[in-house]
Every structure is written in C-alpha cells, then in structure tokens.
Amino acid sequence: MSMIEIKIIDQSSGEQLDRGLLYAEACFETFRVIDGQVFAVDYHIRRMQLGLAALGIDICQKALQDGFERCVQAATQKGSDVLVRFTISGGLSGWGLNRPQHLQPAAYIHTMVPLAQAAQHLMPVEYPFPMKDRPAKFTADYGEFLRARQYWKTQCPEGFHPLLCQQGRWISSATANILLFDGQQWLTPPIGPGVLPGTLRQALLAAGCVGEKELGDHFMEHVQAMACINSGAWIVPVSQLAERLLDVNHAAFAALHEALAARPGVPAMSTVRLADA
C-alpha cells in the first residue's frame, strides 16, 4: 500500500479519539437476530457487563438491556435474520491512558445479512503469544490474533483456517469454539487460557450433549466429526483437519441440532447453510 489516509487530531482544539481505537478499550458481542429474537440474550448481556467491568467501564444491566433492544430494532429493520455486532468502548477522550472521570462510553451497532458458510478446513498452528483468560470478547484479543496471523503464513496453507494450539493443546479457532466427536460423544476444551465462554458452547454443555475435555494432538486419529461454533456463523462443520478428511454429514450432528431446536433466536435449521459442503 503506497498511500494512506491521514487525519490530524489537534487535542489543543478539543478534538478527541475513541479509546477503543487509542487503547483497544472495548468489548463486543456478536449474535443473530432472528424474527426479533436473540438466542440466550441474557448470557450475552452478562458476559459483556463482565468484560466492561474488567476494563473499568461501569454500565448497569438496564443500560445494556436497552442497548441490546436497540440492536434488535436496528436488525428487524434490515430483515428477519440479521447478524449484529454490538461494541461498547471507553468513549471519546484525549491523550493518556487514565480515563477521565465521568467519561461517557460509546456504543456502536453493526448489522449485516449472514453469509452462507463453507465447511471449514483447519490446520493446527502454534499460538506465538502467552494465552490469557478470556471471560469476554475484548477487542484487544482480536488485535493480537491479527499479529499472530503473521506467524502462521508458512504453517497454514491457503484455504485453511488456523486451529489455535499451545504445546500440543487444541484451544479454539480464531473466532469460534471447537467441538470434536470421538465416536462416543461431543467434546470441547474446558474453560482456561485462550478459551472463550461462548454462548452456543454454554447452551450445548447445559443441554448435556457436549462434555468438556482437554483436546490435543493425541486426538487426531480419533476425530470422526468436528465443528466450529459461535453465535454468528452458528454451527460450521469441519471437512478437513490437517490431512484428515472428516464427515460433515455425520449422524452425530443430529444431537446438536435437537438440543437447539425450537428455541427463540435459533435458525430454522440449527446449522449454517453450507456454501460448498
């Protein structure tokens, strides 16, 4: 890139920047609004409130509920199945890490129509930075993923998505929790460094159709089916793990569909529309 757009901010004249841009002081939630309903909306609200509190941004539950209602209103104006990203940052401020007293947080609502998803190809890659606890979706974590991606250029062939690993331990994809079917049950890594307490993950655990277990390279020969799950793409089957081909139509997927069927905010089929299964 030879040219960049430059904007000059003159603090002496009162101009400010969003602290989400200045210091990645922001959290977000991503979810579908289907026929005016958000799946497990209370869980999204609690997780966002927890993340904001960790950044020192105090927003009451009622204010967050109002924010999510605004998300639903914006989404329903766009269609019956809309993907939303709701971001709250520290707000506009001048230079300096210290947050000014009574600083007003800023909220942003992004909407788009969900895209058909292709079954994913995953390649295990070593995560190059120390893993941290991820109680919420901090913007800073995803900035770190972008940095880490530069290390994977030679490890992750074109057409593959990274399966984040550390010392042989499988953690997640860059934007989703992982599920693995070993021939007996669906498994997902337990909450720990690097593992986000995903909304869909929590619902499937609560339904009893998924269990927690440390996953890693020793599972490679036992994998019969695999999926990446999040509240935007929903359930995305994995068609290839490194060199191992997997069945995207495995009968075990039925248990995941049944656990989520008929709940508010769930797509008519509790899996994504595959673009090229």
Write the layout of secondary structure elements.
Elements: E1 17-18, H1 19-23, E2 26-34, E3 37-38, H2 41-54, H3 61-76, E4 81-89, E5 92-93, E6 106-112, E7 120-126, H4 139-149, E8 161-166, E9 169-173, E10 177-181, E11 186-188, H5 199-207, E12 210-212, E13 215-216, E14 225-230, E15 234-241, E16 244-245, H6 253-260
Parallel strand pairs: 7-8, 7-15, 11-12
Antiparallel strand pairs: 1-5, 2-3, 2-4, 4-6, 8-9, 9-13, 10-11, 10-14, 14-15, 15-16
Helix pairs in contact: 2-3
What is the string of SSEs from the N terminus onward?
A: EHEEHHEEEEHEEEEHEEEEEH
Structural class: alpha+beta
Strand content: 25-35%
Q: Provide mean pLDDT, rounded.
A: 91
Number of domain units: 2
Classified by CATH, the class of the largest domain is: Alpha Beta
Q: What's the N-to-C terminus distance?
A: 35 Å
**Main sheet?**
10 strands, mixed
Q: Which architecture of the largest domain does the CATH hierarchy give at level 2? A: Alpha-Beta Barrel
CATH topology of the largest domain: D-amino Acid Aminotransferase, Chain A, domain 2
Number of strands: 16
Q: What spatial form do the alpha-carbon principal axes imply?
A: globular
Estimate the helix proportion, in percent.
10-25%
CATH superfamily of the largest domain: D-amino Acid Aminotransferase, subunit A, domain 2
Unreliable residue runs = 270-277
- Count of helical segments? 6
